[in-house]
Design a protein that fits this description.
Number of domains: 3
Helix content: 40-55%
Shape: elongated
CATH topology of the largest domain: endopeptidase fold (from Nostoc punctiforme)
Order of helices and strands: HHHHEEHEHEHEHEHHHHHHEEEHHHHHHH
Strand order of the largest sheet: 6-4-3-2-1-5-9
Number of strands: 9
Distance between the termini: 115 Å
CATH class of the largest domain: Alpha Beta
Length: 469
């Protein structure tokens, strides 16, 4: 309040001009007591109230009261070794400079939207149905630092250049969100996860400025990001590209790309905030690393290109299917191999049934209307029941098996051909390249087996046996 000292003195003198009578120091202590007794105390108190009101209404003190004592930072956890830890994580750290500094690590709250119950008895059903529940939690900065060190992952802090009012609004919003009735939310991998919740919270106090600067096209699609981050586990990557539908292949914006924590780091750097004098300021005022990664995990910057690998595997499997089926007429080992291959085909078809389940029975919108149902023809599960008869070379079982394999081959070919249609945007060439040759090889192999059996029945060497029947 130093800036108000001259004004305070003048206002005080005006209020007391007709109230105090000064007789001089020579009149002694009695004069001072009589003067105080004649003081107009209501006027004095009114003057003090005016001074306090003016002081608190000044811009500098108003901002301090609104939240200038707070510091808001984003904490970004680097990718980890586990496939799903490669997506990273982000949280909000709020420091209060008005509180004692010695216990800041234990006192500073960190707001984390990535909490879930791993020991939930309904974990698997909720996960499969797309109804997995996450919630907002609050821990101390010390706990989050310890967590990062235990995982061996780095923890980076970005201090945000917010006004006092924006900081206070963010803190109030987080505390409201932390209430028991507000903290839970249904997790969605791409549109509502622990990263997008942080993004939305920051954009809310910025009145849409983060979203406004993030309308440009993203570097890649949701599918491409998923595949590049899981590429170190090829089987998981193949399974994910099978269950993800065309929803993940549409072009997305930089805003939607912020379902990953590192892209929020990049996004807040793009924001410029207009200042009171017309000059803009960067939203990020400083960046520092709080924890260094013991063993940094490198992630791919581009999705892998495994199309030719899948085509080679599918082609070899289809050729093997054809060769084993054609040889089954004369080899017991080939008949056992044929039965094993039919079991594999039945399992592929079971995958098609699972895709229908994801589409019709779950909330996984990223898996709805999956074109891979054509590559994994659900009706093929009937092959499991035909395996014993086919292994015994039963003519009826072989004929039905051939028809099913032929239908699956036609379905897979149709799924590949109609990719030329503009609205068929799903990127499933891996699955087409892998499955189509298997179905074709199986259908051609069963047809060759039936011809071989027919030829052996009508051959002269087998005539006696035929007559005996």
């Amino acid at each position: 309040m130093g800036m108000f000292s001259p004004f305070c003195f003048r206002l005080w003198c005006t209020a007391q001009r007709n109230t105090f009578t000064e007789k001089g120091a020579s009149q002694g202590r009695s004069v001072r007591w009589r003067t105080l007794a004649r003081t107009d105390w209501p006027t004095v108190w009114r003057s003090i109230c005016v001074l306090v009101t003016l002081a608190l209404s000044s811009p500098g003190l108003a901002e301090a009261a609104a939240g200038d004592e707070l510091t808001v930072s984003l904490l970004t956890l680097s990718p980890g070794q586990h496939p799903f830890a490669r997506f990273g994580h982000i949280e909000i750290w709020i420091h209060n400079a008005a509180a004692p500094a010695e216990d800041a690590l234990l006192r500073d709250p960190v707001y984390n939207f990535g909490n879930f119950r791993f020991d939930d008895p309904a974990l698997i059903p909720k996960f499969l149905l797309g109804r997995f529940v996450y919630w907002l939690g609050k821990e101390s900065l010390a706990q989050r630092l310890q967590y990062a060190r235990r995982l061996g992952r780095s923890l980076d802090a970005q201090e945000l250049n917010l006004t006092g009012a924006e900081k206070r609004a963010l803190l109030d919003a987080l505390e409201e969100n932390l209430r028991e009735e507000n903290r839970y939310y249904k997790y969605d991998y791409y549109r509502d996860n622990c990263a997008t919740r942080v993004r939305d919270a920051i954009d809310g106090v910025l009145q849409g400025k983060l979203r406004a600067v993030s309308q440009g096209p993203a570097k890649m699609t949701w599918r491409a990001h998923t595949l590049r981050l899981t590429a170190e586990d090829p089987l998981l990557s193949l399974a994910l590209t099978a269950v993800l539908a065309g929803f993940t292949d549409r072009p997305i914006s930089q805003w939607e790309e912020m379902f990953l924590a590192p892209y929020i780091q990049l996004g807040v750097r793009r924001v410029r905030i207009p200042g009171p004098n017309g000059e803009s300021r960067s939203l990020v005022s400083s960046e520092r690393t709080l924890v260094e990664a013991a063993h940094p995990v490198l992630v791919r910057t581009r999705a892998p290109s495994w199309l030719f690998h899948m085509l080679a595997i599918g082609g070899l499997a289809g050729a093997m299917f054809f060769g084993i089926a054609r040889s089954a007429a004369h080899s017991g080992a080939a008949r056992m191999g044929l039965a094993a291959l039919l079991v594999v085909c039945a399992l592929l078809s079971a995958g098609g049934i699972f895709l229908i389940f994801l589409w019709g029975m779950t909330d996984h919108e990223a898996c709805h209307r999956n074109e891979n149902i054509l590559q994994l023809m659900p009706l093929g599960v009937v092959l499991l029941g035909l395996c014993p008869g086919a292994a015994r070379l039963d003519r009826i079982a072989l004929a039905r098996t051939r028809v099913l394999l032929a239908c699956a081959a036609v379905s897979a070919l149709f799924g590949g051909i109609w990719k030329v249609l503009p609205w068929m945007r799903q990127d499933n060439l891996w699955i087409i390249a892998l499955c189509t040759p298997i179905w074709i090889g199986g259908a051609l192999g069963l047809a060759a087996l039936e011809r071989s059996l027919s030829a052996s029945v009508h051959s002269p060497s087998s005539g006696r046996d035929v007559e005996g029947h």
